[in-house]
UniProtKB/TrEMBL annotation:
Coiled coil: none annotated. This is Trafficking protein particle complex subunit 6B. PANTHER family: TRAFFICKING PROTEIN PARTICLE COMPLEX SUBUNIT 6B. It is found in: Endoplasmic reticulum; Golgi apparatus, cis-Golgi network. It comes from Anhinga rufa (African darter). Keywords: Endoplasmic reticulum, Golgi apparatus, Neurogenesis. Transmembrane segments: none annotated. It holds the Pfam family TRAPP. Component of a transport protein particle (TRAPP) complex that may function in specific stages of inter-organelle traffic. Specifically involved in the early development of neural circuitry, likely by controlling the frequency and amplitude of intracellular calcium transients implicated in the regulation of neuron differentiation and survival. It comes from the Eukaryota. The keyword GTP-binding does not apply. One of its GO terms (cellular component) is endoplasmic reticulum. SUPFAM superfamilies: Ligand-binding domain in the NO signalling and Golgi transport. InterPro entries: NO_sig/Golgi_transp_ligand-bd (IPR024096), TRAPP_component (IPR007194), TRAPPC6/Trs33 (IPR037992).
């Protein structure tokens, strides 16, 4: 439980610190999102290495996505993804109806514009993990109501 609180506090401080620096003229807001995504990418690479060292090879990208939604997401966010969908043409949609990094924020409409900056690290986390598993991807996030989010993964096998 303490590690979860520390992760939430660290994440919130990373986001706040980067955007505070941007407001003081030390960077641009677009760069903040890129920096958070890059940090998440590196963390995702390391976590996937650690989590898959004792597992058998995955048969296909669907098995990889199931691993991401069940095991990876459970280890990082203490719950499974609520919904996984695909169009079978290179796009997966992961839906979390109570995303841990957004539950601390108010559900008011005025906070919807701030939600994407709290998802950049997670997009990088998934992209980094998939990269280490041989899947090149573009991960984007969408929040239509707090604290639910959808992550869109456009992928190609390397």
């Amino acid at each position: 439980m303490a590690d979860e609180a520390l992760f939430l506090l660290l994440h919130n401080e990373m986001v706040a610190g980067l955007y505070r620096a941007a407001e003081q003229g030390e960077g641009e807001n677009g760069r903040c999102t890129t920096k958070l995504e890059s940090m998440g990418f590196r963390v995702g690479q390391g976590l996937i290495e650690r989590f898959t060292k004792d597992t058998a090879r995955f048969k296909d990208e669907l098995d990889i996505m199931k691993f991401i939604c069940k095991d990876f997401w459970t280890t990082v966010f203490k719950k499974q993804i609520d919904n996984l969908r695909t169009n079978h043409q290179g796009i997966y949609v992961l839906q979390d109806n109570k995303f841990r990094l957004l539950t601390q924020m108010s559900a008011g409409k005025q906070y919807l514009e701030h939600a994407p900056k709290y998802l950049a690290f997670t997009c990088g986390l998934i992209r980094g993990g998939l990269s280490n598993l041989g899947i090149k991807s573009i991960v984007t996030a969408e929040v239509s109501s707090m604290p639910a989010c959808k992550l869109f993964l456009e992928y190609s096998v390397i």
